[in-house]
Write a structure and sequence with these properties.
Chains A, B: Belongs to the Casparian strip membrane proteins (CASP) family. The structure is a homodimer. Chain A is mostly helical. Chain A contains four helices and no strands. The first copy, chain A, is elongated.
Chain lengths: 186, 186
């Protein structure tokens, strides 16, 4: 972790300037990640809530009776809890200029989990879509149920998009760490 | 594109040595990508062939009658054609030490397409899995059809794994290009 050093001579001034620029750029980069994580959190939580409250139309039309809808709920719930943790970690890093976990653990943890949860959300949303399409025939007596399922799945797809972008950004940090030995890219 | 330079003085010898090491490491890296692409090609092509030949058990049990199975076939077919193109590009780069397209286009093209096709394969396989699960009740008179569908979907999942790893490797090249202005990482 590089901190700005006190001025002593020209060389150190140069290093200080470089470190300050690095810190500012890293803060901006982390803020960008934070925005994507917050958006992802909102959409995945909304998807999970929409799916969880999708019952009561009739005895047979309950999201718990359909494995794909259970998968959508669980995947979005996991992703939203993870996004909440990552938002905390990002706010911590922006405010204290240090990672929550040791740097090498943090960059690999972020990237691997972003990637896996993006895949999880896509897989759940695709399975949910297929189930929703297969149910269209039985939707005459449960239109509200079907529409609410569609909305939950659509929100999950948007959550996947934000997770995918977060995975790209945290992947960038991992490669910076591999090449430079630090998450700083300047 | 850096080529080894003829020896003239100490500085150039150093640069020549560096370039040779870079070239050798890049060749090894490209060979690794080639292995993953070839594996991905085999599995996605096998999946597409398995799905395409999955008919004739009865009139109703034909893969063309199920949208998820059509999706599995199309996604795996597209991914296998893309893998074939990328294998050609990798062999070209290994043999001629130059990319098929201009370097910046090549690294971005590879990464974006790897990522998108990995997502496509996962989405298709997940949708296909959901359809296969929903069909289990009707599988008493078409066991061969159901087993062959399951195999095609499983092969698609393995193809997705190889595409995902290829996306990671080509993502590494993109970040090298962003940071160093070259796909060389040494």
């Amino acid at each position: 972790m590089r901190y700005p050093q006190p001025h002593r001579n020209g060389g150190e001034t140069q290093q200080n300037f470089h470190s300050t620029v690095s810190l500012q750029k890293l803060k901006r980069f982390n803020s960008l990640i934070l925005v994507f994580r917050f958006s992802g959190f909102c959409f995945t939580l909304a998807s999970a809530v929409f799916m969880f409250t999708n019952y009561g139309v009739s005895d047979s039309l309950d999201w718990l009776n359909f494995d794909a809808f259970r998968y959508v709920f669980v995947a979005n719930m996991i992703a939203s809890v993870y996004s909440l943790f990552e938002m905390t970690a990002a706010v911590w890093e922006i405010s204290r200029n240090a990672t929550l976990l040791p740097e090498i653990c943090q960059v690999w943890f972020d990237f691997s989990h972003d990637q896996v949860f993006a895949y999880l959300l896509l897989s759940a949303s695709s399975a949910g879509t297929e189930m929703a399409r297969a149910m269209k025939g039985t939707c005459t007596d449960g239109t509200v149920f079907c529409v609410q399922s569609d909305i939950a799945i659509a929100l999950g797809f948007v959550g996947f998009l934000f997770s995918g972008v977060s995975a790209l950004l945290s992947g960038f940090r991992v490669v910076c760490f591999i090449i430079n030995g630090s998450r700083f890219y300047v």
